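Morning, I've got a small favour to ask if you have a moment. I've dropped the whole record in just underneath, so have a look.
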Amino acid sequence: MTALDPIDIFAPGADDTEKALRRRLARAQATGSARAARCNSDDARCLWWQAAGVASAWTFARADKEVLEDILRACSQMFCAANVFERIEGGHA
């Protein structure tokens, strides 16, 4: 028997693709939070927290797959921008 995760519990009717998108959002939230905590750049930290917040807000929100894909794309763009600020403003600890 496989272990249930929060996506399985709170989105039982979702198909495998939707569950995978929601798991990616949950990982984006964890990644954004972790990177923000280690970041020395104020601008990058702001973007990491913003991406983490957006991902967190949409992980369990009622939305179709296309919307979830758009949200993931937006988070990815914020991650890319945060990386640029980290590189030019001092990296992370």
Summary: Residues 57 and 70 are 14 Å apart (CA to CA). The radius of gyration is 15 Å. The mean pLDDT is 92. The longest helix spans residues 65-89.
